[in-house]
Design a protein that fits this description.
Blueprint (H helix, E strand, L loop, with lengths): L13 H18 L6 H17 L5 H11 L2 H9 L2
Helix pairs in contact: 1-4, 3-4
Length: 83
Protein backbone atom coordinates (compact mmCIF):
# COMPACT_ATOMS: atom_id res chain seq x y z
CA UNK A 1 0.00 0.00 0.00
CA UNK A 2 1.16 3.53 -0.64
CA UNK A 3 -0.51 5.46 2.16
CA UNK A 4 1.19 8.79 2.89
CA UNK A 5 3.77 8.35 0.14
CA UNK A 6 3.22 11.77 -1.33
CA UNK A 7 6.40 12.19 -3.40
CA UNK A 8 6.31 11.01 -7.00
CA UNK A 9 9.61 9.26 -7.65
CA UNK A 10 9.21 9.56 -11.42
CA UNK A 11 11.10 6.31 -11.96
CA UNK A 12 14.41 7.82 -10.88
CA UNK A 13 16.84 7.70 -8.01
CA UNK A 14 16.92 10.66 -5.65
CA UNK A 15 20.06 12.28 -7.10
CA UNK A 16 18.74 11.99 -10.66
CA UNK A 17 15.36 13.34 -9.59
CA UNK A 18 16.96 16.30 -7.82
CA UNK A 19 19.05 17.14 -10.90
CA UNK A 20 16.04 16.83 -13.18
CA UNK A 21 13.92 19.11 -10.98
CA UNK A 22 16.72 21.69 -10.85
CA UNK A 23 17.06 21.63 -14.64
CA UNK A 24 13.32 21.85 -15.22
CA UNK A 25 12.98 24.70 -12.72
CA UNK A 26 15.86 26.62 -14.29
CA UNK A 27 14.37 26.19 -17.75
CA UNK A 28 10.96 27.29 -16.51
CA UNK A 29 12.35 30.42 -14.88
CA UNK A 30 14.57 31.43 -17.79
CA UNK A 31 12.21 30.59 -20.66
CA UNK A 32 8.92 31.26 -18.80
CA UNK A 33 7.32 28.18 -20.41
CA UNK A 34 8.31 24.55 -20.89
CA UNK A 35 6.64 21.46 -22.31
CA UNK A 36 6.80 18.35 -20.14
CA UNK A 37 4.67 15.51 -18.89
CA UNK A 38 1.85 16.05 -16.43
CA UNK A 39 3.54 14.04 -13.69
CA UNK A 40 6.76 16.05 -13.98
CA UNK A 41 4.81 19.30 -14.04
CA UNK A 42 2.98 18.41 -10.83
CA UNK A 43 6.25 17.47 -9.14
CA UNK A 44 7.85 20.65 -10.44
CA UNK A 45 5.08 22.79 -8.97
CA UNK A 46 5.92 21.66 -5.43
CA UNK A 47 9.61 22.34 -6.19
CA UNK A 48 9.28 25.82 -7.72
CA UNK A 49 6.56 27.51 -5.67
CA UNK A 50 8.63 27.71 -2.45
CA UNK A 51 11.49 29.19 -4.50
CA UNK A 52 9.21 31.88 -5.90
CA UNK A 53 8.01 32.68 -2.39
CA UNK A 54 11.61 32.84 -1.19
CA UNK A 55 12.52 35.21 -4.03
CA UNK A 56 10.07 37.86 -2.81
CA UNK A 57 12.60 38.77 -0.10
CA UNK A 58 15.72 39.92 -1.97
CA UNK A 59 18.43 39.19 0.58
CA UNK A 60 21.75 37.42 0.37
CA UNK A 61 20.44 34.50 2.40
CA UNK A 62 17.43 34.04 0.13
CA UNK A 63 19.63 34.13 -2.97
CA UNK A 64 21.97 31.52 -1.52
CA UNK A 65 19.12 29.22 -0.53
CA UNK A 66 17.55 29.47 -3.99
CA UNK A 67 20.95 28.96 -5.64
CA UNK A 68 21.43 25.77 -3.62
CA UNK A 69 18.24 24.42 -5.24
CA UNK A 70 18.70 25.70 -8.79
CA UNK A 71 22.52 25.75 -9.15
CA UNK A 72 22.18 28.14 -12.09
CA UNK A 73 23.32 31.73 -11.65
CA UNK A 74 21.30 33.04 -14.61
CA UNK A 75 18.08 31.45 -13.38
CA UNK A 76 18.58 32.89 -9.88
CA UNK A 77 19.22 36.37 -11.29
CA UNK A 78 16.13 36.11 -13.51
CA UNK A 79 13.99 34.89 -10.63
CA UNK A 80 14.96 37.71 -8.31
CA UNK A 81 14.93 40.39 -11.01
CA UNK A 82 11.73 39.71 -12.97
CA UNK A 83 9.63 36.88 -11.59
Amino acid sequence: MRHLNAINHLGRKSADRKAMMANLASSLIVHKRISTTTAKARALRTYVEPLITKSKDDSTHSRRVVFSYLENKNAVAELFREV
